[in-house]
Design a protein that fits this description.
Strand content: 15-25%
Radius of gyration: 21 Å
Structural class: alpha+beta
Helix content: 25-40%
Largest sheet: 8 strands, mixed
Order of helices and strands: HEEEEHEHHHEEEHHHHEEHEE
Shape: globular
Length: 396
Amino acid sequence: MTDSPLPPAASAALAAHRHIYGGDARVAWAPGRINIIGEHTDYNEGWVLPAAVKRHVAVAGTVIAGSVTDCFSEHHAMRASFTNPSSPEHALPAYLPLWSRYIWAIFAELAALGVRVPTSRLAISGDLPVGGGMSSSAALLTATATFLTRTAGHPIEPLALAQLCQRAERLASGAQVGIMDQAIALLGQEGLALLLDCRDLSHEWIHGQPTGWQWLLFDTQVRHSTAAGEYNLRRAQCEAAVVKLQAALPDQRITALRDVSLADLDAPGAGLSVVERARARHVITENGRVHRMVAAMRADDTHEIGHLLVASHASLRDDFAVSIEELDVAVEVATAQTGVAGARMMGAGFGGSVLILARADDVNAISAAITSAYEQRTGRPGKAHVEHIGDGARFR
């Protein structure tokens, strides 16, 4: 049985390794993701519905002697090196650019588990938009972790490795990210979406798109950083609401916003601020939309799927306040097209991409129409890309 062809990112990483370091290398790759619905629910212990896509970040590498790992990023056209850390308590070198901090953090978290992490020369390449809302950071983390654990001969169960990568991202970026992106990058299965309970990590698979329809991603070309203070601020606002609701409802077992109903927000003595109420309302209604989306996907109910996408965007825009003008315009021009069931902003917000469900037979014409209308409205050249649902991280 012959091996399947390498994805483009893996071939590019191997070529970059040969060019920079010479010689043959092994390679690991991990996918970006779309999130069909369930935005900002993962760190509130709620539910999400992501799917891996056939675009990747790849890490090609060789093991070398010594204790200094060297890395090259093709995207940044930059090299960086560091002494292998012995634990997460080892001070993260301030001189490292962000992309290499993610790699350093994986070394640190693996070392904390007692894994004998191999000193390496690593070349990184990818075809995911950096800052485009498809979680290129989680793809880099999980590809690196896959390469290092396989090279070390120390495989780690996928969900445990996802949690390690989550800790590494928090360490490297300062953003208190949830578990969704790392989990789907490792667990992804071709053609399927993952219904993940972010409290206990139980999960099930559903068919990833309705029959005759296609997921389309429109990149607004506005970049964001999940390390920005707004992400952590939203999390803090959610946690502040939980503290107040715990005090107002002592007979209920509330540990996160997933345990709260809309009626609970009016509990006597809760004293939620206008902002806290809005943030909690988004999380509560978005969790409900996840379950309704699963039912709609199983029923091939594209009308309901489209309605839920649009409702999710409105909630992210109005209650969670993470949308921006370009995202709103992209949703407006997408939903105005014949053959589009619905659309919403996807990812942390403040830039990135819009997820669109389009009729498969018309997807090229729809892509062109959205791109043209978006540029007319914003003066920016956006980019549409058909997304195919693929597998999680691999090593060869």
